[in-house]
């Protein structure tokens, strides 16, 4: 159950950060926002790794998992840069709900590739969430 609390905390803090970013993009470029915000993200990650010690590095190396981590990092960078660009151009009330539909991509990949169970409640949740995004963006 702790994972749910962490996810709720992440949702709230990401929402606050995105709102603040939208406000700052009135005067600064999304490229500057991406750079500054991610300097802090990298610093937080480095600090976390230092606190964990050697355990945080034990699986890294020239292997498939590290390769996937690099691919995920490139895709994440493209995603965040695209979000920042979209926020600088359009209303947060449209951009952020569309961005939030990323969970449907994760759910579909989880079902098909990771073999996570497909439950009727999850399908209904995805449909309702997607419907809410359609309504929010109108």
Commentary on this structure:
The mean pLDDT is 92. 79% of the residues lie in helices and 0% in strands. The protein has six helices and no strands. The protein is mostly helical. It folds into two domains: 2-89, no CATH class; 101-138, no CATH class. It has helices spanning 2-24, 30-52, 64-89, 92-100, 102-112, 120-136. The N and C termini lie far apart (35 Å).
Observed structural traits:
2 domains, single chain, globular, mainly alpha
Q: Residue-averaged pLDDT, rounded?
A: 92
For the biggest sheet, the summary is: none
Question: Beta-sheet strand percentage?
Answer: under 5%
- Tell me the structural class: mainly alpha
Low-confidence stretches: none
Order of helices and strands: HHHHHH
Distance between the termini: 35 Å
Give the secondary structure arrangement, pairings included.
Layout: H1 2-24, H2 30-52, H3 64-89, H4 92-100, H5 102-112, H6 120-136
Helix pairs in contact: 2-3
Précis, in short:
This protein has 138 residues and is mainly alpha-helical. The protein has six helices and no strands. The protein is globular, with a radius of gyration of 17 Å.
């Amino acid at each position: 159950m702790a994972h749910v609390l962490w996810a709720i905390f992440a949702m709230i803090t990401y929402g606050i950060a995105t709102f603040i970013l939208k406000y700052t993009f009135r005067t600064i470029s999304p490229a500057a926002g991406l750079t500054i915000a991610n300097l802090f993200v990298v610093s937080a990650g480095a600090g976390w790794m230092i606190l964990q010690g050697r355990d945080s590095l034990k699986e890294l190396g020239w292997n498939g998992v590290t390769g996937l981590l690099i691919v995920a990092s490139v895709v994440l960078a493209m995603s965040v840069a695209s979000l920042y660009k979209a926020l600088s151009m359009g209303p947060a009330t449209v951009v952020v709900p569309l961005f939030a539909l990323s969970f449907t991509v994760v759910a579909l990949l989880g079902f098909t590739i990771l073999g996570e169970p497909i439950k009727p409640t999850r399908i209904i949740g995805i449909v309702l969430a997607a419907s809410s995004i359609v309504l929010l963006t109108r």
